[in-house]
Design goal:
It is built from twelve helices and 15 strands. By secondary structure, it is α+β, with helices and mostly antiparallel strands.
Length: 333
């Protein structure tokens, strides 16, 4: 039976866990090291703040029991992830492996669950970059105009890509893991390698953005089923089916639904449902015919506080402010 934890609880447990003793590892003031609870596994995460808004994380963990870590909807930076051993399963993405990497633009990330199995050993390199760091480099470059629209999503759902790992990418990952320098020079070296890796991804995406998206091979029948699922969610906002019910209704497995939906629509089924609910709620509030509580119920929210928080996260204003006619700062004219 899997242990299920929220991300906040998982981070707190790792923060309280004993720090592992690693041979020949010298930690500098710009690095942090975390262990993991011994009954859950063995390993560590090492995070390095390379500069303001740029982080590098090395992870080497082996799990002693099945574990699921739930991450809620959140603001998401640019991210690059490379797996150096085995594979990583996540409910909103194809399986990450030594041959399939992950690159994400900025925006809002749907909620997801990372799944770890007993005996699984995951070694990874993870880079996160705040969007403001890249804006000054990319937003004035006409060559990247179409790609910028995909990568800088602001308060919309982020777009993810799953490029094949090239020898050059893998080489950079190992060079970062085994940095030959110390102190401030090491920090400069690692930042240079991070941006070199970023250049490889941006070059690949600028040549063919569609080619770098999910490499899942979806059959025409599956594509039709996923579009059907999307239509069902859009028309049943108040009482939508569960994922298992939705998969059964359209004639595919729940796993295919969970993997295929984001590959085709760049969001999870539940993320799409949330988006449709909130967009519908905004339209109803703009009409000025209903109370906020009535609108929450009409789009399927049984808990007013949850509705209010989700609405403000999407539009930057509360439902009451929307009803009063205030405009969203996130919407373009």
């Amino acid at each position: 039976m899997s242990l299920i934890l929220n991300l906040e609880d998982w981070d707190e447990m790792c923060d309280l866990a004993p720090k592992p003793q690693l041979n020949n590892l010298v930690l500098y003031d710009f690095e942090e090291l975390w262990g993991m609870p011994e009954y859950l596994g063995r390993g560590y995460d090492r995070e390095i703040q390379l500069s303001h808004g740029v982080w590098l994380n090395f992870s080497d963990n082996k799990y002693h029991q099945d574990l699921k870590v739930k991450t809620p909807v959140h603001n998401h930076p640019f991210q690059m992830v490379m797996i150096l051993s085995e594979s990583l399963n996540c409910t909103i993405h194809p399986t990450f492996s030594k041959v399939r990497s992950y690159f994400s633009g900025s925006g809002i990330s749907p909620a997801y669950v990372d799944k770890f199995q007993t005996g699984q050993h995951i070694v990874s390199v993870n880079v996160e970059i705040e969007p403001a760091i890249l804006e000054s480099y990319l937003l004035s470059d006409a060559q990247f105009t179409s790609l910028q629209e995909q990568l800088f999503k602001g308060e919309d759902w982020k777009v993810s890509y799953y490029p094949k790992v090239t020898p050059a990418m893998r080489s950079l990952a190992y060079q970062m893991w085994n940095a030959p320098y110390r102190g401030a020079v090491k920090r400069i070296y690692l930042q240079a390698k991070v941006f070199e890796l970023l250049v490889l991804y941006l070059d690949l995406l600028s040549e063919d953005p569609q080619q770098a998206k999910s490499t899942l091979k979806l059959k025409p029948k599956t594509v039709n089923a996923l579009h059907h699922a999307k239509d069902i969610l859009a028309t049943q906002l108040e009482q939508p089916p569960s994922l298992s019910q939705l998969a059964q209704q359209v004639g595919i497995s729940q796993r295919t639904l969970q993997r295929g939906f984001p590959a085709l629509f760049n969001t999870t089924a539940m993320g799409y449902l949330t988006q449709q609910r909130l967009d519908r709620a905004e339209k109803l509030l703009r009409e000025g015919k209903f109370l906020v509580s009535d609108v929450a119920t009409m789009v399927g929210y049984g808990h007013f506080g949850q509705f209010s928080r989700a609405f403000k996260q999407r539009f930057g204003i509360t439902p009451s402010q929307c009803l009063a006619g205030e405009l969203s700062p996130f919407k373009k004219d």
